[in-house]
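hiii so um. not sure if this is the right channel but i have a protein structure encoded as tokens and i wanna go backwards to a sequence. like what aa goes where. can anyone help
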């Protein structure tokens, strides 16, 4: 097994794990009992029905993108069954679009004030913009560029995983009394290092997306 396969295996395991956790937390336990919702209600926020709808859209569509992403990057599927790869690409793009649009709406109501709102809004816009570039590249038959932008886009999708890792670390170190303070920073560090790492990785491999 190559190092690349090991890396992709770890990413897939984490993505499926967080997707499963989200299904249990929001789908089985219930949206009204999820930590995010409980925290907002306990802090005195009044959550509108539209906010709840957008959160549901964000969760469902983002889960699709999170789980499908690693399989889009599998050479075995991409090279041997282009139709499956194409169909997964459609579903992934739909997932990112739904997650990005709903995420942009939810960013306005993010816990942590302007810092968090800006961080999550930029994440949503970057997510939507890079998937647009990936789609445009494949329509222009620029397959190498398409793959590069897809990898960059998935580094943003993977913020669903890194956000929860950082959140767990911060809760472990600082507890919950300073939640709003560190959550504002998590709104940035859950995705910005991911993108910088991916850009550095592609540049080192000679695959930088121009």
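sure thing!! here u go:
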């Amino acid at each position: 097994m190559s190092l690349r396969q090991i890396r992709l295996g770890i990413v897939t395991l984490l993505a499926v794990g967080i997707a499963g956790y989200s299904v249990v937390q929001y789908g089985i336990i219930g949206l009204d009992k999820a930590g995010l919702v409980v925290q907002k209600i306990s802090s005195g926020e009044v959550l509108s029905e539209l906010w709840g709808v957008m959160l549901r859209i964000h969760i469902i569509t983002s889960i699709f993108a999170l789980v499908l992403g690693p399989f889009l990057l599998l050479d075995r599927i991409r090279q041997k069954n282009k139709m499956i790869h194409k169909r997964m690409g459609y579903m992934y793009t739909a997932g990112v679009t739904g997650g990005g649009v709903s995420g942009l709406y939810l960013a306005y109501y993010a816990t942590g004030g302007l810092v968090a709102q800006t961080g999550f809004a930029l994440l949503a816009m970057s997510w939507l913009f890079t998937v647009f570039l990936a789609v445009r590249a494949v329509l222009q038959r620029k397959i190498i560029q398409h793959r590069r932008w897809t990898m960059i886009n998935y580094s943003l999708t993977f913020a669903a995983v890194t956000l929860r890792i950082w959140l767990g670390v911060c809760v472990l170190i600082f507890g919950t009394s300073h939640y709003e303070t560190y959550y504002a920073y998590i709104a940035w560090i859950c995705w910005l290092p991911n993108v910088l790492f991916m850009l550095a990785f592609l540049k080192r491999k000679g695959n930088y997306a121009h």
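oh and The radius of gyration is 17 Å.
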